[in-house]
Write a structure and sequence with these properties.
With 77 residues, this protein is mainly beta. 14% of the residues lie in helices and 53% in strands. The chain has one helix at residues 11-21, and strands at 8-9, 27-36, 39-49, 56-69, 72-75.
C-alpha cells in the first residue's frame, strides 16, 4: 500500500543530530523526514569514489529515529 502523503523535511533536526553525533568521513548530506507527529527519521549519507569504475557511490552511513520537542531533539534509536 502506498502512502501518498508528502513527508515533511526539517533541516533543524539534521543540524541538531549532526551536532550530537558528528559528521562521518566522506559526508554528503543529511535528510530528516517527519514520519508522524513529532517523530523523524534522520538519514546521514556518505559519498565515495569507486576504483576501476567511473562514478561514485552514495549510501546511508547512519540512520536515526528522533523526537523533536519544541527545539530539543532526542535520538530514540
Amino acid at each position: 500500500m502506498q502512502n501518498d502523503r508528502a513527508l515533511n523535511t526539517n533541516p533543524y533536526v539534521c543540524m541538531q543530530v549532526l551536532e550530537k553525533v558528528g559528521k562521518p568521513d566522506n559526508f554528503f548530506q543529511c535528510k530528516s523526514l517527519n514520519v508522524y507527529d513529532n517523530k523523524y527519521r534522520v538519514n546521514i549519507y556518505t559519498k565515495e569514489s569507486i576504483e576501476g569504475l567511473t562514478g561514485e557511490r552514495t549510501r546511508i552511513a547512519k540512520s536515526y529515529f528522533c523526537r523533536l520537542d519544541d527545539d530539543k531533539v532526542t535520538i530514540l534509536s
